[in-house]
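hey can u run this one w/ manganese (II) ion bound, need the structure tokens asap thx
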Amino acid sequence: MFTTRYQRMYDNLIEVCKKNLVNFDEKLIRKAFDFALEAHKKDLRASGEPYFDHPYEVAMIIAKEIPLDDVSIASALLHDVLEDTEITYEMLVKEFNQTIADIVDGVTKIGGVIRDHDASQAENYRKLLLSMVNDIRVILVKFADRLHNMRTLEFLSREKQIRIAKETMQIYVPFAHRFGLAQIRWELEDLAFKYLDPEAYEDIRKKLKATRREREAYIKKTIAPIKQKLDQEKLKYEIEGRPKHFYSIYRKMITRGKAFEEIYDLFAIRIILDTENIYECYNVLGMITQIYRPVPDRLHDYIAIPKSNNYQSIHTTVVGPEGKMVEIQIRTRRMHEIAEKGVAAHWKYKNSYKPSNKQIEELVDWIREIFENASNKEEANKEIIKDFKYYLQQDEIFVFTPKGDIRVLPKGATPIDFAFQIHTKVGFHCIGAKVNGKIVPLDTKLNSGDQVEILTSKNQTPNKSWEKFVITSKAKQEIRKWIKQEENKKVEEGKALVAKALKKLKIHINNDDLLKLVQKAKFENLNEFYKAVAAGTIDIQEFLTQKPETEKPQTTKEEVEKLEFEKFADNAREQIGGVLIAGDKLDVLHNYAKCCNPIPGDEILGFITRGEGVKIHRKNCKNLERLMKVHEGRIIDVAWPNTDGNYFIAAIKIVGEDRPGMLSEISQTIVNYQNTNIKSVNFQTHRSIFYGTISINVKNLDHLNHIIERLKKINGIETVERFELLN
Ligand code: MN
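ok here u go:
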């Protein structure tokens, strides 16, 4: 239940909404009103009034001065609950909806960003703020909030007054101007001026007041013949003499170096036509120039060429009574509303019902357009125009250095990009990064508003992998340059090593022959070869002394091993007498699976293929396991013939140090062990390591394993294992 005070406030708000909005959800506004009132019930403002009066007045400003929709009014009522009360974002989502929760959250966040950082980099701050806003209503509510705070600034300390007024002048005023919110812009500017230079403000105020009667009389005299003419033509219109805003008078005095008394056009006459026909404006201009002589070069047709913020009007200056200059503005009602209310009015005229999300999106696009035009026309500095274009494509982010300076980076930039932007040296020695106080991976994508700190170490150098994720051209170029330099160093190092080796080996080799050797070894070019030499991945002496016979096509170690295994396996399978099925020799077409290469001694199974007969696999073959799941019925039991008392061939792979006597020690060990004999031996030596395969006769796998264990005990042996080929 409301007290009569709140009931009256509520009724007023609804009345204003009814007047300014074609359509709105009263239940939503009522709910927001009750919710905010309850949330703020214990708090007071600096003025001693209930805190709720503030969000209420902010909602009133929206409803009266920039009426857009019910959501922005409800959000205005709720705009301080996240910051000042126990209410959470989740509660707002639950109680209202995501849109309202996001708007309130946005208002809270941008307020925080402005407060926490010195606003000396105003241009960047404006961009930062905009980049954080994705719903235009966040900005409208923030403007209204700031306007109400400025209107009630008298209750704060002098120090706070100055800080807030400065912020208003540097950030909110230019923003309001670009959004076409003329009324709010002038009021913010005059209020800020009042606190920043109270003496100048007071001086102008007094002088305007003192000369008011005189000026009003003059305006009346000037207007009279115009009115007469307009009435004759039966036009519907409003005509007013509008005093210039305090700050614009002040600025004129400063820029023109004139005293207050010397500024003539303190008044402008404004004619607002109640028509949708823009040509009426030109007719009226014609009528006026019949009455007063126009001043040359002072005609501005902002109807044909609207200002960047969509402002439209005809401005002309004429010589009025007593030879004084008077500025006259002519516009339609619609142009007037757009000039005064900007964004909100634009929407009002575009649609006569509640805006859909799509229309809100269009509105945001339209605002972006305003920004683009504004930057093109107003900012001479090409860099700023470029920056703005970046923003328009939402391609930019704004991050802070630990000292609070803003850095502009393209979207998707990482701490490495940031480091190189700070200084090439910082980039080169970057070893880690902290974002908002937490250590993050170096490929982390930064977000607007992040505070980034780069950790450096003198010993750190750029990593080749950085090139893959950095996105700024500066970082890319520097990293590439560094990699190139390092490569050149390695090439030089490799060249020196080759020269040294040639000298030591007393070999003369010309470049062509060297290139042939290098190509034979499958290096792309000489540089790649030198790099490998420097990195120590090839033995330069061995490389340079290789024998010409290596000209025959080289087979890889794997290929050699495979061929040798096949030779051995065929031999072993044949010698044992093939495979048995149910005790009989398997005499249908069969072969041995290449995936597991079964050899005598292995437990085996047969798989009946389509067209290739029976394929013999090892029992534990992974492929076979898969086949069995699908085709269980196609598996048959097979076995090697029983070797009890007989021998079958097995092979051993052996690697060890190539020392004198090694081979004889190996053969002694095998032969002396239970009458095993060696069937064949194949040894190769490479860089004083030998690689060998030995085929031997064994009784069974146990027997083989014993032999392997024995061989392992020989001095200088590295590995001994059963020779098998598993893919
Ligand atoms: Mn507020």
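The chain is about 50% helix and 15% strand. anyway lmk if its weird
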